[in-house]
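hey m, so remember when u said the tokens were messed up on ur end? i reran from scratch. heres the input so u can diff it against urs
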Amino acid sequence: MKIITVADTPSTPNMIKGIFTMRKIPGVTFVHAHTKEELVAAMDEQSVVLIDWECDPGVGADYVYAAKSRIAKVPVLLLCIKQKAGTTFAGIKAGAAGVINKPFAPEDVIRSIAATLKKGQKTRPTVNVEFINPFIDATRNVFSSMCQVEVARKSIFVKPDYKMLGDISGVMQLSGTAAGSVVISMSSELARLVVGNMLGEPPAEELTQDVIDATGEIINMISGQAKASLVKTKYHFTISIPKVVTGPGHEIEHQPGTPNIVVAFEGAGHDFSLQVCLAPNDEAEAAEAGAAG
């Protein structure tokens, strides 16, 4: 395995090399690339690319694009101080496989690289848009009517891992025609803003339990509106009571191989995401087919 680290200074590459040297992991070579040209020239089929995300997001995304254009299957991981939607959306959309938050422990780096390589398995490439659109519409409606925040959809893309892009996430588990989860993930700043607007109060100074509970209520309203829309379709779903998960870089458990569709939004100057991971329920489809016959 060849680990290529892209960084402005040698400190991060030296740290990565030291981690593997101390653990006496054999068969690993290291390259420190300063430019896209050096990165591309160093790459081969056994490479793993680590990009130190201290630079401008657009510049960092250019490095991801360069690596994926050279050898598409080579995994790229971002190294950043704290995972924020506004600073990592560009890299994830460009094709990065995930994020390692700094400061990191040696085990974090080894575990993340190993997990990324293991996730080289194929995933089902698409999710029926009829499953997604009700959640997009409900998110817009609730943010606008209840939180006085107008949101705009920025992009939609397939994300190679299941790590959330925000500090706080509302999780809706679905079963029925398809099984999996729909997650709305946002930064602490945006959560505090929308909750303050909903309650008619200034935003809280920190992510308190009251803010977390109120965020759960917002997700519950989105879930309710989406469920009402899905009832009008030929698909049948049961949506669980949403739960809230907090902490930068948290990950929601999903069925392996389920496609991870991310819809990126912007509201009040903050990025946030709607993450849809649904796999068709073969038993439900068979039952529907039998009923139709």
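this time it looks ok to me. The first strand starts at residue 2 and ends at 6. if urs says something different then somethings off w ur setup not the seq
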